[in-house]
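Illustration 12: MFS transporter.
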Amino acid sequence: MPDVRLASPQGKWILLTTILGSSMALLDSTVVNVALPRIGRDLGASLAALQWTVNAYMVTLAGLILLGGSLGDYYGRRKIFVLGVVWFATASLLCGMAPTSGILIAARALQGVGGALLTPGSLAIIQASFHPDDRSRAVGLWSGFGGIGAAVGPFLGGWLVAGPGWRWVFLLNVPLALLCVPVALRHVPESADPRRHARFDVLGAVLGALALALLTYALVEAREASWAVALTGAAGLAAAVAFVHVERHRPDPMLPPDIFASRQFTAVNLVTLCVYAAFGGFFFLTALQLQVVAGYSPLAAGTALLPTTALMLLFSARSGALADRTGPRLPLTVGPLLSAAAMLLMLRVGKDADYLTDVLPAMLVMGAGMVTLVAPLTATVLASVDTARAGLASGINNAAARAAGLIAVAALPLLAGMGPEAYRDPAAFDAAFDRAMPMCAGTLLLGSALAFTLVRRPAPGCRHPECRTHGSVTAPPLEGRGR
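Figure caption equivalent — predicted structure in token form:
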């Protein structure tokens, strides 16, 4: 039984290590959007290259995050976590030094691999190290400080872009890693799951990531309407079919198909796909709209996004407690409606938009919607499966949210009619943004309707989330594999 106490010096070092590691990935997921216009200008990148700057990271992270957790269980959680931190920092260094958009995109894909190794590992280390009496408090502190990192991410990113330059958005990860790795090696005990075996679903992970990459490429490049794009799309669909076939026939699949026998689990993942597709498209385009059209500096644009994550950080725990009393159906129905209203309010944000009257109301309503939605979403995922599979269910839900976001970033500019150079033309971008926001709102309305129709109150005695504080806008929080 793990016996490290939170109040002990070792307990504090373990908590610091996991916060530093997870903060690298959380910061990176929120700061890059703010830097996109400067990246595009400095590297001469097209809109498609900016899309890939976001999506290359999401493809590998979403495709490999379940595998990353399994590798830690077998080979050692500290070992895989440290490997992930070093990998992530090395890829970040490559991003910061990238001379072209193509090299930046390749380095971002490598970053996603590191993120898939360290993201599940940080929580697994806490659960495997701390005494059961201290574990919930340790997880609460870890998720709370991680939420703070996610909340300040856009502000920090804007400050870095406006000051030292966009490359420091990535280079900042290097000193964090240099601090994190020695502390982990000295103070974090190694742990593994003796029940795990050495059979890993590498083929399933590769096929899943390949399907996402090919389909994303086809959507991003669909403006060309070429045979290459059509063949890539067909190959992506074939990879997706092969992924389903492999998962159905492997003895130990990464994504067990029978977990979807729970109608509640299937329903809440459908809701997840809708809402995080809308969120992914919204935050990608809003960071550009504020700078390209409204004329905000990177720092002002990053600060403008702060209220949403701050509200999530302050009130997500209370939202989860309220949902325990009311059941998940009401918040999962109302939350998307509030977020849809926020996206329609963003239609007021145009040239020379005033922050207090035009931007802030939308950000506050968006924050209220996400506060209402995210904690009950996680709780419903955990409650819809057996306790022994709660960690797997959380990982699947997290990966589904990231996949939905990357598909939205790929498809939404196409659907809104954005040309390759749209972000260089304020009038053209503003017109396309006005077409995109109702599309995002409509996707949220679909998610709300699915929640109202399909989500039911979970059975009594089900597992509840340990991560009650959350600030990330890219995916719901991960939960551990067991208590």
